[in-house]
Amino acid sequence: MLCLSQTCGYAILALSCLHECGGRWVLAREIARCTGIPQPYLSKVLHSLTRRGLIVAKRGYQGGFALARAPHQISLLDVAEAIDGAQAVPRCLLGLADCSPERACPTHRFWQREREHIMAELRRLTLVEVAQFERQDGTWLGSCHPRNSRHANRRRSARTATVNGRSRHRDGGNRS
Amino acid sequence: MLCLSQTCGYAILALSCLHECGGRWVLAREIARCTGIPQPYLSKVLHSLTRRGLIVAKRGYQGGFALARAPHQISLLDVAEAIDGAQAVPRCLLGLADCSPERACPTHRFWQREREHIMAELRRLTLVEVAQFERQDGTWLGSCHPRNSRHANRRRSARTATVNGRSRHRDGGNRS
DNA sequence: TATTTTCTTGATAAGTCGGTCGTGATAAGG
DNA sequence: CCTTATCACGACCGACTTATCAAGAAAATA
Question: Which residues 6+ apart lie within 8 Å of B92 measured at CB?
C-alpha cells in the first residue's frame, strides 16, 4: 500500500489540532475527542512526537501538549520522518537494499523523480498550509474551536475497512 | 512508510523475471534464484498473481509459470492492484474513511493531485518499459538469461533493514 | 505536605505481513 | 498405471503495528 502509516496520519491530525487550538495547553483527551483517534494510542503517538521535539508536554494540573515550534516550521515531512524514521519515503519503491543508479531496480528512475516530487510537496506543506485548506474547505478540524463542535468525534476507520476488503480480496473468494 | 508493500515489490520483480525469460515456462525455483526472493513466499505471491490472471501456471513435469498477457499489457498499477487490492494507492493519505472534497482531511488537495500523478506513472510503466530501463542500465535482472548469471542470487533485505532501523529509532535509544 | 491532575511507560493482546513447511493435486513420460 | 516433477494451499511462526489498561512520576495548588 502506497501510503503513510496510520500512526503518521494520527500524528498529522494531532498536530493540526494543536495548531487549531492556538498556543494553549491541550489535553490528550481533548485531542482524542477532536480527532477521533483512540486516546490510549494517541498518548503514545504524542509521546513520541515529544521525544522527537515536535511538541512539548507539561504534566500535572493545567498541563497538556503544545507545538514546540511555530506552525510554519512543522512540515508534513517533519512529521513523517519523526514517526516513520528518516526513510519515511524510501529510496527504492520495491524495497531493495542496494538500489542505486549503477545497479537500479526496474522502477528506479521513475521513483527517483516521483520521490523528489512527493518529498518537495511534503516539505512545502506545513501546519499553516494545512490549516488554510481546512478553513477554505470548512472541514472538521475546525471543531477544535470551542464554539464550533458539531463535527467532533468523527472516527477514522478507513484503514481498517480497506485492510479487511483487501484480505477478502486476496485469500478468500474467487478461487475459480 | 510511503511505499508499496514488499509483497508487491516481489511481484514486480517476479513478473519482470518472467518477461526476461521470454515466453517459456519458468519454475518458481528459477524465479526465486534469479530475483533473490525466498522461494516458499514467492510461491504464494505467484499463486495470487495466477488467481488475479496476470500469469498462468502449469503443473507437473516441464511446468512452471508464464505471463498471461503481452508484457506491454501488464502495468505496475495492475500488479499493485492485484496484490494490494483496488486501493493500492489510497484516496486519503491519512487513511480517513470519509475524506472527500466536501469533507476533506488536511492533506486532501495535495494528495488528490499527487495520487493522480503517481497512478498515471504506474499505469504508463509496463513490463516493457521496465525491461528497457534494465537494458539501458545493465542491471541485474538480465541474469535471468542463461548466459548472463553473474548477478544472480542478490538478496533484498532493504525493507527488513529499514524496519529495524526504524524501530530502533522509535522505541529504543535516545529517550533523553 | 497532601491532593489532584496529567503525562509516562510497561505489560499485554489482536491483527496483518513476511516467511517456512508439508501434504495434496495434477500433469507428463515411461 | 506408476513415478516424477511441479504447483496449490492450509497450518503455522515471529515480528511489527495498532490498540488497551493500569501503575508510576511529576507538576500545580491548596
Answer: A158, B99, B105, B107, B108, B111
Residue B54 near residue B67 (C-beta atoms within 8 A): yes
Q: How many residues does chain B have?
A: 176
Q: How distant, in Å, are the alpha carbons of A62, A63, A77, A131, B53 from that of A22? A: 16, 15, 21, 11, 53
| Cell 527504492 belongs to residue | A92
Question: Any atom of strand D under 7 A from CB of B94?
Answer: no
The pLDDT value given to residue A69: 96
* Residue where the block lists cell 504508463: B124
With contact defined as beta carbons under 8 Å apart, do B151 and B140 qualify?
A: yes
As ranges, strand D nucleotides with an atom below 7 A of a protein CB are 4-10, 15-22, 25-29
Nearest to A157 among B84, B97, B133 (CB): B97
Report the pLDDT value the prediction gives residue A143, as an integer from 0 to 100. 59
Determine phi and psi for A22, rounding to 5 degrees.
Answer: 60, 75
Question: Which residue ranges of chain A lie beneath pLDDT 70?
Answer: 137-176
Identify the closest residue of chain A to B89 by CA–CA distance.
Answer: A2
Count of CA atoms in the C-beta half-sphere (13 A) of B91: 12
Strand D reaches within 7 A of the A145 CB: no
The proportion of chain B whose per-residue pLDDT surpasses 90, expressed as a percent, equals 56
Q: Write out the three cell numbers for A39.
A: 486516546
